[in-house]
């Protein structure tokens, strides 16, 4: 059976996973009466809830005697560590672009990686049936993107298909509005080359994904670069320098069939397989026959740009909601994550009670924290900080991001003003149709921490912001942080409606009556720049006198509830987020007011 290995790359929400659903259905992977969930490739709970792909996954379909291995890649740049490794397994890529939105920053990130590896793209303009589709302009934007990314003549001569993933059709005709995906299958078979491999050479394979199984241990996924491998065959693992890390046997081999991993007895060069039997081999290692001494070159991974401190939860309510609260449990979980996710780096602090976790962005670390809290962990999370570097002259450099903002024309002035305050430089501004403007900035990552919530308020929820790591550039100096102070509880107990009613005029509240509070916990945002200690536990003094009209029912404004990402973006340097399986609370690092004042004096000195 002939073989094709392809990756599908696209921006978040451009319809990649929906298209893969239709490829399954039309290739006969599912029975006609089989019940299949929508977006079957998004198998993780968080992926289903957020509607985004977080983990790269392999799958396979058969079409008219050709086996097509498909790799579904994340569309968000924060999960780019997944994408870079995946591209070394495939021989071609399908670039999926929304017919209305066109190529976006994350598309640029992944496409640049694919073109640098010499892969030839197939461009699929998806959602062609949208009322605001502008397929011809989007195609020109794709061509321009390829030119800017340094594509060669062969890569610029790409086939074009117009498709609707939801309705399951693709065509070379821009006006087509029905049909099936046969043109896409034919284009893949015709345009993507078969794997260029040596079947008779000694077995070797580069590990690109790492998974865990409670029964089989480590499962290493990659493409067999040369030779054949059979069950129980002796194998060795080599690091990037060709040094032997471990020796063992291939105890299990799996290939992909639809959504399932299927056990196989043997695999040959070009196949994408999973292999079990080794205990220390990891991503970017080469698995080979014992006689092989040369490692396969692995794609370098872009460095992390953002770090957060994960600490043991030391609040008065610690241990009430979670069952994994010790530093040893947190350490083991983070080390396990760093093992399977090469874009994350974990370092232990001197006090052994906290860990610095460095990653690509707030979303990536936010997903890790959310996953951990669902597993029963309790954590204290610090404000994100960017990782500085030094240039060759010893000057300080910081990460910059390309920010592309789509906003209604009436809000563009506000957005430009706010971005200027955050030391961003505008690089492009153009109308994008329908009363909207597309503005591009080059901005220091530091200035963007915590801006997204403010951006949504400024644009009344209609603005769309896309960010992408650009470069390390010169340090821009101090950037103003949050404008408002916070309201801090001065006691421990349950919030009282009478007290909260009196505090409403002070600012915006984050809590509601009956909620348990503790000293040093942030219960709201102050209307003024300073922090204010308040008493939300004060109840009404009861007397024997009755007064008409004084005891009307108290009506409180509903509290402002922050999601995990909003809370992390909101906090200041002297605050942290307490994360438990049931609650997200903002608190001061030092709960005692005297301790806070002492620490503040020390910082100012």
UniProtKB/TrEMBL annotation:
Gene assigned in the entry: typA
Protein name (record): Large ribosomal subunit assembly factor BipA
A GO BP annotation: ribosomal large subunit assembly
Key word RNA-binding present: yes
Species assigned in the record: Sphingomonas lacunae
Subunit structure: Monomer.
A Pfam family of this chain: GTP_EFTU
Any one of the GO CC terms: cytosol
Residues bound to GTP: 13-18, 126-129
InterPro entries: BipA, BipA_C, BipA_GTP-bd_dom, BipA_II, BipA_III, BipA_V, EFG_III/V, EFG_V-like
Function comment: A 50S ribosomal subunit assembly protein with GTPase activity, required for 50S subunit assembly at low temperatures, may also play a role in translation. Binds GTP and analogs. Binds the 70S ribosome between the 30S and 50S subunits, in a similar position as ribosome-bound EF-G; it contacts a number of ribosomal proteins, both rRNAs and the A-site tRNA.
PROSITE patterns in UniProt: G_TR_1, G_TR_2
Keyword GTP-binding applies: yes
UniProt-annotated location(s): Cytoplasm
Tr-type G domain ranges (all copies): 1-196
PANTHER family (alphabetical): TR-TYPE G DOMAIN-CONTAINING PROTEIN, TRANSLATION ELONGATION FACTOR-RELATED
Protein family per UniProt: Belongs to the TRAFAC class translation factor GTPase superfamily. Classic translation factor GTPase family. BipA subfamily.
Record EC number: 3.6.5.-
Major localisation: cytoplasm
Keywords from the named record: Cytoplasm, GTP-binding, Hydrolase, Nucleotide-binding, Ribosome biogenesis, RNA-binding, rRNA-binding, tRNA-binding
Gene Ontology molecular-function annotations: GTP binding; GTPase activity; guanosine tetraphosphate binding; ribosome binding; rRNA binding; tRNA binding
Catalytic activity: GTP + H2O = GDP + phosphate + H(+)
